[in-house]
Amino acid sequence: MAESLKKENEALRAQLKKAQEQLEQQAITIKQLQEIIFGKKTEVLEQVADGQLSLFDPVDDLNLDQEITEVVKTTTTKIVRHRPAKKQLTRQEFLDQLPQVEEVVSLKTTTCPDCQQEMAHIGKRLARREARLKEPELYCANLYEESYKCKHCSQDGNDKLVTSKAPMALLPHSYFSSSIMAFIAYLKFNLALSFYRQESFVQGLGLPVSAKQMASNIIKVSQTYLEPLYQYLSNTVRQEPVIHMDETPFKVVDSPKSQDYFWVTRTTKEFAQHPVVVFHHANTRSGRIIGQIVGNNYPGIIMCDGYKGYSNQLYPQAKFGSCLVHIRREFVKLVKALPKTMKASKAQQALTLLSQVFHSENQLSYQTANEKLVQRQIHVKPLMDKFYNYISQISQPIGQLRKAIQNAIQLKSRVYRVFENGQLPLSNNSVEQSIRPSTLIRKNCLFAKTEEGAKANAVYYSLVETAKLNQLNVQRYLEYLFDHLPESNCQDLAAFLPWSKNVQEECRE
Question: Where is the Transposase IS66 zinc-finger binding domain (predicted)?
Answer without folding.
Answer: 110-153
